[in-house]
Design goal:
The complex is a heterodimer of chains A (177) and B (306). By secondary structure, chain A is mainly α. Chain A has helices at 23-41, 50-62, 65-82, 91-107, 115-140, 150-171, and strands spanning 4-6, 13-15. A two-stranded antiparallel sheet of chain A has the order 1-2. Chain B is rod-shaped, with a radius of gyration of 44 Å. With 306 residues, chain B is α+β, with helices and mostly antiparallel strands. Classes of the chains: A mainly alpha (177), B alpha+beta (306). At the A-B interface, α1, α3 and α4 of A face α1 and α2 of B.
Chain lengths: 177, 306
Protein backbone atom coordinates (compact mmCIF):
# COMPACT_ATOMS: atom_id res chain seq x y z
CA UNK A 1 0.00 0.00 0.00
CA UNK A 2 1.22 3.51 -0.78
CA UNK A 3 2.23 5.66 2.11
CA UNK A 4 0.94 8.80 0.46
CA UNK A 5 -2.07 9.58 -1.62
CA UNK A 6 -2.13 12.33 -4.19
CA UNK A 7 -5.66 13.65 -3.92
CA UNK A 8 -5.84 16.73 -6.10
CA UNK A 9 -3.05 16.74 -8.61
CA UNK A 10 -0.31 17.12 -6.07
CA UNK A 11 -1.93 20.04 -4.22
CA UNK A 12 -2.56 18.04 -1.11
CA UNK A 13 -0.83 14.92 0.04
CA UNK A 14 -2.85 12.87 2.51
CA UNK A 15 -0.80 10.32 4.29
CA UNK A 16 -1.94 6.74 4.62
CA UNK A 17 -0.94 5.57 8.06
CA UNK A 18 0.40 2.15 8.90
CA UNK A 19 0.21 0.63 12.34
CA UNK A 20 2.42 -1.57 14.44
CA UNK A 21 2.00 -5.31 14.00
CA UNK A 22 -1.18 -6.54 15.62
CA UNK A 23 -2.22 -3.06 16.70
CA UNK A 24 -5.51 -3.18 14.79
CA UNK A 25 -6.41 -6.63 16.07
CA UNK A 26 -5.50 -5.79 19.67
CA UNK A 27 -7.26 -2.44 19.65
CA UNK A 28 -10.36 -4.02 18.14
CA UNK A 29 -10.39 -6.88 20.65
CA UNK A 30 -9.80 -4.46 23.50
CA UNK A 31 -12.69 -2.27 22.37
CA UNK A 32 -15.01 -5.27 22.13
CA UNK A 33 -14.00 -6.58 25.55
CA UNK A 34 -14.42 -3.16 27.14
CA UNK A 35 -17.77 -2.67 25.44
CA UNK A 36 -19.07 -5.88 27.00
CA UNK A 37 -17.30 -5.37 30.30
CA UNK A 38 -17.62 -1.73 31.32
CA UNK A 39 -21.45 -1.48 31.58
CA UNK A 40 -21.43 -4.21 34.23
CA UNK A 41 -19.50 -2.01 36.65
CA UNK A 42 -20.32 1.40 35.19
CA UNK A 43 -23.84 1.24 33.70
CA UNK A 44 -23.58 4.71 32.18
CA UNK A 45 -20.70 3.44 30.03
CA UNK A 46 -23.31 1.63 27.92
CA UNK A 47 -23.83 4.90 26.08
CA UNK A 48 -20.42 4.45 24.46
CA UNK A 49 -19.96 2.47 21.25
CA UNK A 50 -16.25 1.73 21.36
CA UNK A 51 -16.31 -0.74 18.43
CA UNK A 52 -17.83 1.98 16.28
CA UNK A 53 -15.16 4.46 17.33
CA UNK A 54 -12.43 1.95 16.49
CA UNK A 55 -14.05 1.28 13.12
CA UNK A 56 -14.17 4.99 12.39
CA UNK A 57 -10.60 5.56 13.48
CA UNK A 58 -9.03 2.78 11.47
CA UNK A 59 -11.21 3.63 8.49
CA UNK A 60 -10.09 7.26 8.58
CA UNK A 61 -6.47 6.31 9.14
CA UNK A 62 -6.05 3.46 6.69
CA UNK A 63 -7.95 5.25 3.93
CA UNK A 64 -8.56 2.05 2.04
CA UNK A 65 -12.29 1.45 1.52
CA UNK A 66 -11.92 -2.30 1.06
CA UNK A 67 -9.93 -2.71 4.25
CA UNK A 68 -12.24 -0.34 6.05
CA UNK A 69 -15.43 -2.15 5.13
CA UNK A 70 -13.99 -5.58 5.92
CA UNK A 71 -12.73 -4.39 9.28
CA UNK A 72 -16.13 -2.83 9.93
CA UNK A 73 -17.86 -6.06 9.02
CA UNK A 74 -15.63 -8.11 11.30
CA UNK A 75 -16.05 -5.72 14.24
CA UNK A 76 -19.80 -5.54 13.65
CA UNK A 77 -20.35 -9.28 13.52
CA UNK A 78 -18.21 -9.79 16.62
CA UNK A 79 -20.28 -7.14 18.37
CA UNK A 80 -23.44 -8.93 17.24
CA UNK A 81 -22.05 -12.15 18.64
CA UNK A 82 -21.49 -10.56 22.03
CA UNK A 83 -24.79 -8.70 22.09
CA UNK A 84 -27.07 -11.59 22.93
CA UNK A 85 -29.89 -13.29 21.11
CA UNK A 86 -31.98 -10.13 20.67
CA UNK A 87 -29.41 -8.89 18.16
CA UNK A 88 -29.15 -11.13 15.11
CA UNK A 89 -25.78 -11.57 13.42
CA UNK A 90 -25.42 -8.91 10.78
CA UNK A 91 -27.32 -6.08 12.41
CA UNK A 92 -24.25 -4.19 13.60
CA UNK A 93 -22.26 -5.95 10.88
CA UNK A 94 -24.12 -4.19 8.07
CA UNK A 95 -24.02 -0.82 9.81
CA UNK A 96 -20.32 -0.99 10.60
CA UNK A 97 -19.49 -2.29 7.14
CA UNK A 98 -21.01 0.83 5.67
CA UNK A 99 -19.37 3.06 8.26
CA UNK A 100 -15.98 1.44 7.61
CA UNK A 101 -16.36 1.98 3.92
CA UNK A 102 -17.48 5.60 4.24
CA UNK A 103 -14.83 6.45 6.84
CA UNK A 104 -12.12 5.08 4.58
CA UNK A 105 -13.52 6.89 1.58
CA UNK A 106 -13.80 10.21 3.40
CA UNK A 107 -10.43 9.73 5.04
CA UNK A 108 -8.93 9.44 1.57
CA UNK A 109 -10.34 12.80 0.60
CA UNK A 110 -10.14 14.95 3.71
CA UNK A 111 -7.61 15.70 6.38
CA UNK A 112 -9.10 14.03 9.43
CA UNK A 113 -6.24 14.63 11.87
CA UNK A 114 -7.66 17.71 13.47
CA UNK A 115 -9.69 17.08 16.66
CA UNK A 116 -12.54 19.26 15.42
CA UNK A 117 -12.79 17.28 12.20
CA UNK A 118 -12.71 14.05 14.17
CA UNK A 119 -15.43 15.30 16.49
CA UNK A 120 -17.71 16.34 13.62
CA UNK A 121 -17.10 13.15 11.66
CA UNK A 122 -17.78 10.99 14.70
CA UNK A 123 -21.10 12.72 15.34
CA UNK A 124 -22.06 12.23 11.68
CA UNK A 125 -20.96 8.60 11.59
CA UNK A 126 -22.68 7.84 14.87
CA UNK A 127 -25.94 9.26 13.53
CA UNK A 128 -25.55 7.35 10.29
CA UNK A 129 -24.68 4.16 12.14
CA UNK A 130 -27.81 4.52 14.25
CA UNK A 131 -29.87 5.28 11.15
CA UNK A 132 -28.60 2.13 9.45
CA UNK A 133 -29.46 0.02 12.48
CA UNK A 134 -32.96 1.44 12.67
CA UNK A 135 -33.38 0.93 8.93
CA UNK A 136 -32.25 -2.67 9.15
CA UNK A 137 -34.56 -3.34 12.08
CA UNK A 138 -37.52 -1.78 10.32
CA UNK A 139 -36.96 -3.32 6.90
CA UNK A 140 -35.52 -6.71 7.65
CA UNK A 141 -36.56 -7.51 11.21
CA UNK A 142 -39.93 -5.73 11.43
CA UNK A 143 -38.83 -4.06 14.64
CA UNK A 144 -40.08 -0.47 14.61
CA UNK A 145 -37.67 1.88 16.33
CA UNK A 146 -37.60 5.65 16.50
CA UNK A 147 -35.20 7.32 14.14
CA UNK A 148 -34.07 9.85 16.66
CA UNK A 149 -34.34 10.37 20.39
CA UNK A 150 -32.71 12.88 22.67
CA UNK A 151 -30.76 10.04 24.21
CA UNK A 152 -29.25 9.24 20.83
CA UNK A 153 -28.32 12.89 20.32
CA UNK A 154 -26.55 13.01 23.67
CA UNK A 155 -24.90 9.68 22.94
CA UNK A 156 -23.57 11.02 19.64
CA UNK A 157 -22.00 14.02 21.37
CA UNK A 158 -20.50 11.97 24.17
CA UNK A 159 -19.08 9.41 21.76
CA UNK A 160 -17.61 12.23 19.70
CA UNK A 161 -15.90 13.72 22.75
CA UNK A 162 -14.55 10.33 23.75
CA UNK A 163 -13.45 9.74 20.18
CA UNK A 164 -11.27 12.84 20.17
CA UNK A 165 -9.24 11.53 23.10
CA UNK A 166 -9.39 7.90 22.04
CA UNK A 167 -8.09 8.74 18.59
CA UNK A 168 -5.15 10.57 20.20
CA UNK A 169 -4.31 7.40 22.10
CA UNK A 170 -4.66 5.25 18.99
CA UNK A 171 -2.40 7.63 17.09
CA UNK A 172 0.40 6.30 19.26
CA UNK A 173 -0.02 2.90 17.65
CA UNK A 174 1.01 4.26 14.27
CA UNK A 175 4.31 3.43 12.75
CA UNK A 176 6.56 6.47 12.54
CA UNK A 177 6.53 7.79 9.00
CA UNK B 1 -15.59 -10.62 -19.81
CA UNK B 2 -15.79 -7.00 -18.72
CA UNK B 3 -13.30 -6.06 -16.00
CA UNK B 4 -14.39 -4.07 -12.98
CA UNK B 5 -12.70 -0.67 -12.75
CA UNK B 6 -10.37 -0.60 -9.72
CA UNK B 7 -12.01 2.47 -8.23
CA UNK B 8 -15.31 0.61 -8.17
CA UNK B 9 -13.90 -2.55 -6.69
CA UNK B 10 -14.44 -1.40 -3.15
CA UNK B 11 -17.97 -0.35 -3.98
CA UNK B 12 -18.73 -3.80 -5.38
CA UNK B 13 -17.09 -5.33 -2.34
CA UNK B 14 -19.28 -3.20 -0.11
CA UNK B 15 -22.37 -4.30 -1.96
CA UNK B 16 -21.34 -7.93 -1.74
CA UNK B 17 -20.53 -7.80 1.93
CA UNK B 18 -23.74 -6.03 2.81
CA UNK B 19 -25.75 -8.42 0.68
CA UNK B 20 -24.05 -11.34 2.37
CA UNK B 21 -25.02 -10.02 5.76
CA UNK B 22 -28.57 -9.36 4.64
CA UNK B 23 -28.75 -12.98 3.56
CA UNK B 24 -27.28 -13.98 6.90
CA UNK B 25 -30.05 -12.03 8.60
CA UNK B 26 -32.65 -13.60 6.35
CA UNK B 27 -31.38 -17.08 7.13
CA UNK B 28 -31.55 -16.37 10.83
CA UNK B 29 -35.11 -15.12 10.51
CA UNK B 30 -36.23 -17.99 8.29
CA UNK B 31 -34.67 -20.77 10.36
CA UNK B 32 -35.02 -18.99 13.67
CA UNK B 33 -31.33 -19.62 13.98
CA UNK B 34 -29.04 -17.29 15.86
CA UNK B 35 -25.68 -18.24 14.38
CA UNK B 36 -24.81 -20.23 17.45
CA UNK B 37 -21.40 -21.33 16.20
CA UNK B 38 -20.11 -17.81 15.61
CA UNK B 39 -21.44 -16.70 18.97
CA UNK B 40 -19.82 -19.61 20.76
CA UNK B 41 -16.49 -18.84 19.15
CA UNK B 42 -16.70 -15.14 19.91
CA UNK B 43 -17.82 -15.59 23.48
CA UNK B 44 -15.19 -18.29 24.02
CA UNK B 45 -12.50 -15.97 22.73
CA UNK B 46 -13.61 -12.95 24.72
CA UNK B 47 -14.64 -14.54 28.01
CA UNK B 48 -11.09 -15.14 29.36
CA UNK B 49 -10.38 -11.44 29.00
CA UNK B 50 -13.71 -10.56 30.59
CA UNK B 51 -13.02 -12.93 33.45
CA UNK B 52 -9.57 -11.45 33.95
CA UNK B 53 -11.03 -7.97 33.80
CA UNK B 54 -13.71 -8.81 36.33
CA UNK B 55 -11.08 -10.31 38.60
CA UNK B 56 -8.94 -7.22 38.21
CA UNK B 57 -11.84 -4.87 38.92
CA UNK B 58 -12.77 -6.92 41.96
CA UNK B 59 -9.19 -6.82 43.15
CA UNK B 60 -9.00 -3.07 42.68
CA UNK B 61 -12.31 -2.59 44.46
CA UNK B 62 -11.22 -4.79 47.35
CA UNK B 63 -7.96 -2.93 47.61
CA UNK B 64 -9.79 0.36 47.62
CA UNK B 65 -12.43 -0.74 50.10
CA UNK B 66 -10.04 -2.50 52.45
CA UNK B 67 -7.11 -0.13 52.33
CA UNK B 68 -7.75 3.38 51.09
CA UNK B 69 -11.30 3.52 52.42
CA UNK B 70 -9.99 2.27 55.77
CA UNK B 71 -8.53 5.67 56.48
CA UNK B 72 -12.04 6.82 57.33
CA UNK B 73 -12.89 3.47 58.85
CA UNK B 74 -10.02 3.79 61.29
CA UNK B 75 -11.34 7.14 62.46
CA UNK B 76 -14.87 5.76 62.70
CA UNK B 77 -13.49 2.79 64.61
CA UNK B 78 -11.90 5.10 67.19
CA UNK B 79 -15.17 6.99 67.60
CA UNK B 80 -17.12 3.76 67.94
CA UNK B 81 -14.66 2.50 70.54
CA UNK B 82 -15.10 5.66 72.57
CA UNK B 83 -18.87 5.41 72.21
CA UNK B 84 -18.76 1.74 73.16
CA UNK B 85 -16.76 2.54 76.29
CA UNK B 86 -19.23 5.23 77.30
CA UNK B 87 -22.16 2.87 76.71
CA UNK B 88 -20.50 0.13 78.76
CA UNK B 89 -20.06 2.60 81.60
CA UNK B 90 -23.72 3.60 81.32
CA UNK B 91 -24.80 -0.04 81.35
CA UNK B 92 -22.71 -0.70 84.46
CA UNK B 93 -24.24 2.33 86.17
CA UNK B 94 -27.75 1.27 85.17
CA UNK B 95 -27.15 -2.29 86.34
CA UNK B 96 -25.87 -0.96 89.62
CA UNK B 97 -28.92 1.27 89.97
CA UNK B 98 -31.23 -1.60 89.06
CA UNK B 99 -29.59 -3.81 91.68
CA UNK B 100 -29.89 -1.02 94.22
CA UNK B 101 -33.55 -0.57 93.32
CA UNK B 102 -34.11 -4.31 93.83
CA UNK B 103 -32.43 -4.18 97.21
CA UNK B 104 -34.40 -1.14 98.28
CA UNK B 105 -37.61 -2.76 97.09
CA UNK B 106 -36.80 -5.80 99.23
CA UNK B 107 -36.08 -3.60 102.21
CA UNK B 108 -39.30 -1.67 101.71
CA UNK B 109 -41.31 -4.85 101.49
CA UNK B 110 -39.67 -6.17 104.61
CA UNK B 111 -40.29 -2.89 106.43
CA UNK B 112 -43.92 -2.79 105.37
CA UNK B 113 -44.38 -6.33 106.62
CA UNK B 114 -43.06 -5.32 110.03
CA UNK B 115 -44.40 -1.84 110.42
CA UNK B 116 -45.03 -2.33 114.11
CA UNK B 117 -41.39 -3.17 114.74
CA UNK B 118 -39.30 -0.06 115.40
CA UNK B 119 -36.36 -0.14 113.11
CA UNK B 120 -34.24 2.21 111.08
CA UNK B 121 -32.56 1.58 107.81
CA UNK B 122 -28.88 2.27 107.50
CA UNK B 123 -26.26 2.13 104.83
CA UNK B 124 -22.99 0.32 105.28
CA UNK B 125 -20.29 2.91 104.78
CA UNK B 126 -17.14 0.91 105.39
CA UNK B 127 -15.82 -2.25 106.91
CA UNK B 128 -13.19 -3.30 109.36
CA UNK B 129 -9.69 -1.98 108.98
CA UNK B 130 -8.23 -5.33 109.92
CA UNK B 131 -9.04 -8.71 108.55
CA UNK B 132 -9.14 -10.39 111.97
CA UNK B 133 -12.41 -8.78 113.07
CA UNK B 134 -15.68 -9.00 111.16
CA UNK B 135 -17.24 -5.57 111.65
CA UNK B 136 -18.95 -2.94 109.56
CA UNK B 137 -19.83 0.69 110.06
CA UNK B 138 -23.25 2.19 109.44
CA UNK B 139 -24.14 5.74 108.45
CA UNK B 140 -26.47 6.11 111.43
CA UNK B 141 -25.66 6.44 115.11
CA UNK B 142 -26.91 7.77 118.43
CA UNK B 143 -28.79 10.62 116.80
CA UNK B 144 -30.94 8.04 115.07
CA UNK B 145 -31.66 6.20 118.29
CA UNK B 146 -29.15 3.43 117.78
CA UNK B 147 -27.62 1.98 120.91
CA UNK B 148 -25.15 -0.85 121.61
CA UNK B 149 -26.51 -4.40 121.56
CA UNK B 150 -29.25 -3.56 119.14
CA UNK B 151 -29.79 -6.18 116.48
CA UNK B 152 -28.95 -5.60 112.84
CA UNK B 153 -30.80 -7.53 110.17
CA UNK B 154 -31.61 -7.61 106.47
CA UNK B 155 -34.71 -9.06 104.84
CA UNK B 156 -32.63 -12.19 104.27
CA UNK B 157 -31.67 -12.75 107.86
CA UNK B 158 -29.55 -11.82 110.86
CA UNK B 159 -26.47 -9.67 110.31
CA UNK B 160 -25.07 -9.00 113.75
CA UNK B 161 -25.36 -6.54 116.60
CA UNK B 162 -24.28 -3.01 117.34
CA UNK B 163 -21.18 -2.95 119.50
CA UNK B 164 -20.20 0.69 119.36
CA UNK B 165 -22.28 3.78 118.87
CA UNK B 166 -21.14 7.19 117.82
CA UNK B 167 -22.96 10.36 117.05
CA UNK B 168 -23.67 9.56 113.41
CA UNK B 169 -22.18 6.13 112.94
CA UNK B 170 -22.41 2.77 114.53
CA UNK B 171 -20.12 -0.23 114.50
CA UNK B 172 -21.70 -3.64 113.99
CA UNK B 173 -20.17 -6.96 114.90
CA UNK B 174 -21.06 -9.40 112.19
CA UNK B 175 -22.39 -12.82 112.96
CA UNK B 176 -19.33 -14.37 111.36
CA UNK B 177 -16.95 -12.81 113.90
CA UNK B 178 -15.54 -15.41 116.27
CA UNK B 179 -16.78 -13.36 119.22
CA UNK B 180 -20.27 -13.15 117.87
CA UNK B 181 -23.26 -15.36 118.64
CA UNK B 182 -27.01 -15.54 118.42
CA UNK B 183 -29.68 -17.57 120.17
CA UNK B 184 -31.02 -19.92 117.51
CA UNK B 185 -33.13 -22.98 116.99
CA UNK B 186 -33.90 -25.51 114.31
CA UNK B 187 -36.80 -24.21 112.23
CA UNK B 188 -38.52 -27.63 112.06
CA UNK B 189 -37.72 -29.38 115.33
CA UNK B 190 -37.58 -26.13 117.36
CA UNK B 191 -34.57 -27.47 119.24
CA UNK B 192 -32.64 -24.48 120.56
CA UNK B 193 -28.90 -24.29 120.01
CA UNK B 194 -26.60 -21.25 119.86
CA UNK B 195 -24.94 -20.25 116.61
CA UNK B 196 -21.59 -18.47 116.68
CA UNK B 197 -19.06 -17.07 114.30
CA UNK B 198 -15.74 -18.64 113.52
CA UNK B 199 -13.97 -15.79 111.79
CA UNK B 200 -14.74 -17.49 108.51
CA UNK B 201 -17.61 -17.05 106.08
CA UNK B 202 -19.52 -19.97 107.65
CA UNK B 203 -21.06 -20.03 111.13
CA UNK B 204 -21.09 -22.86 113.62
CA UNK B 205 -24.07 -24.51 115.26
CA UNK B 206 -22.85 -25.45 118.74
CA UNK B 207 -23.53 -28.13 121.26
CA UNK B 208 -25.15 -30.79 119.13
CA UNK B 209 -24.03 -34.15 120.44
CA UNK B 210 -22.66 -36.83 118.18
CA UNK B 211 -25.62 -39.04 119.05
CA UNK B 212 -28.16 -36.46 117.92
CA UNK B 213 -29.39 -37.48 114.47
CA UNK B 214 -32.14 -34.90 114.17
CA UNK B 215 -29.83 -32.40 112.43
CA UNK B 216 -29.25 -32.75 108.73
CA UNK B 217 -27.58 -30.70 106.03
CA UNK B 218 -30.00 -28.20 104.48
CA UNK B 219 -31.97 -27.69 107.69
CA UNK B 220 -32.96 -24.11 108.33
CA UNK B 221 -31.91 -22.31 111.49
CA UNK B 222 -33.82 -19.32 112.84
CA UNK B 223 -33.46 -17.02 115.82
CA UNK B 224 -34.99 -18.24 119.03
CA UNK B 225 -35.47 -14.80 120.61
CA UNK B 226 -33.86 -15.91 123.84
CA UNK B 227 -30.84 -13.60 123.50
CA UNK B 228 -33.16 -10.59 123.86
CA UNK B 229 -31.49 -8.96 120.89
CA UNK B 230 -33.30 -10.51 117.97
CA UNK B 231 -36.93 -11.45 117.76
CA UNK B 232 -37.72 -15.08 117.15
CA UNK B 233 -37.97 -16.83 113.79
CA UNK B 234 -35.58 -14.56 111.90
CA UNK B 235 -33.52 -16.62 109.42
CA UNK B 236 -30.00 -17.27 110.62
CA UNK B 237 -28.84 -19.74 108.00
CA UNK B 238 -28.90 -23.27 106.67
CA UNK B 239 -26.72 -26.18 107.67
CA UNK B 240 -23.98 -26.64 105.10
CA UNK B 241 -22.18 -29.71 106.38
CA UNK B 242 -21.92 -31.89 109.47
CA UNK B 243 -18.83 -33.66 110.79
CA UNK B 244 -18.47 -35.75 113.94
CA UNK B 245 -16.38 -34.15 116.70
CA UNK B 246 -14.87 -35.33 119.98
CA UNK B 247 -18.02 -34.65 121.98
CA UNK B 248 -20.19 -32.47 119.76
CA UNK B 249 -20.75 -32.49 116.05
CA UNK B 250 -19.00 -29.82 114.02
CA UNK B 251 -21.89 -28.27 112.15
CA UNK B 252 -21.19 -25.45 109.73
CA UNK B 253 -23.96 -23.06 108.85
CA UNK B 254 -24.21 -20.86 105.79
CA UNK B 255 -25.53 -17.43 106.85
CA UNK B 256 -28.93 -16.48 105.46
CA UNK B 257 -27.86 -12.88 104.93
CA UNK B 258 -25.14 -12.19 102.43
CA UNK B 259 -22.64 -10.87 104.96
CA UNK B 260 -19.91 -10.43 102.40
CA UNK B 261 -21.88 -7.95 100.33
CA UNK B 262 -23.89 -5.81 102.69
CA UNK B 263 -25.03 -2.41 101.53
CA UNK B 264 -28.25 -1.61 103.37
CA UNK B 265 -29.41 -3.04 106.70
CA UNK B 266 -32.06 -2.48 109.34
CA UNK B 267 -31.23 -1.72 112.94
CA UNK B 268 -33.86 -2.90 115.41
CA UNK B 269 -34.51 0.11 117.60
CA UNK B 270 -35.41 -1.75 120.74
CA UNK B 271 -33.75 -3.80 123.39
CA UNK B 272 -36.97 -5.58 124.27
CA UNK B 273 -37.96 -8.96 122.86
CA UNK B 274 -39.92 -8.49 119.64
CA UNK B 275 -42.31 -10.55 117.65
CA UNK B 276 -41.68 -10.29 113.92
CA UNK B 277 -44.04 -11.38 111.19
CA UNK B 278 -42.92 -14.05 108.81
CA UNK B 279 -41.61 -12.82 105.49
CA UNK B 280 -44.17 -14.95 103.78
CA UNK B 281 -46.90 -12.72 105.15
CA UNK B 282 -47.84 -10.30 102.43
CA UNK B 283 -47.84 -6.63 103.27
CA UNK B 284 -51.31 -5.88 104.59
CA UNK B 285 -52.14 -2.24 104.91
CA UNK B 286 -55.28 -2.96 106.91
CA UNK B 287 -53.25 -4.50 109.69
CA UNK B 288 -50.87 -1.57 109.93
CA UNK B 289 -51.61 0.55 112.95
CA UNK B 290 -52.85 3.96 111.96
CA UNK B 291 -50.48 5.55 114.40
CA UNK B 292 -47.45 4.04 112.70
CA UNK B 293 -46.21 6.34 110.00
CA UNK B 294 -44.68 4.77 106.99
CA UNK B 295 -41.90 7.30 107.31
CA UNK B 296 -40.70 5.22 110.24
CA UNK B 297 -38.51 3.45 107.75
CA UNK B 298 -36.03 6.22 108.10
CA UNK B 299 -37.34 8.18 111.02
CA UNK B 300 -35.35 7.81 114.20
CA UNK B 301 -37.11 6.24 117.10
CA UNK B 302 -36.24 6.38 120.73
CA UNK B 303 -34.81 3.15 121.98
CA UNK B 304 -36.82 1.26 124.53
CA UNK B 305 -34.83 0.30 127.54
CA UNK B 306 -35.23 -3.28 128.61
Amino acid sequence: MNDTYDLRSGELHIEVHKFRAGAIVLATAFALVLQAFLPIYFPKAAILDLPLLVTIYFGLSRRNPSTGLLLGMAIGILQDSLSGRTVPLGLYGIAKTVIGYLASSIGARLDTEHPAARFALTVAFFALHQGLIVLTRRLLLSQPEPWFTMHLGVAALINAVVAVFLFMLLDRLRKPS
Amino acid sequence: MVGIPSRHKSLFLLGGVVLLQVLLLAVQIKRDSQGRLIRVWTVGAVSPFERAGAHGISHVRDTWNHYFALQNTSRENEELKRENGALKLQITQLQSKAAEADRLAGLLKFRQTNLDVPMVSARVIFGSADSASQTIYLDRGERDGIRPNMGVITPDGVVGKVIECYKDTAQVLLLTDEHSGVGAMMAESRIQKPVGGTGEPLLQLKYVSNEDNSVNPGDRIVTSGTDRIFPGDLPVGTIADIKPGSTFKQIRVRPAANLERLEEVFVLLTLKPLEMKQDSAAPNTESVPASTPSAAVTAPAKPVKP
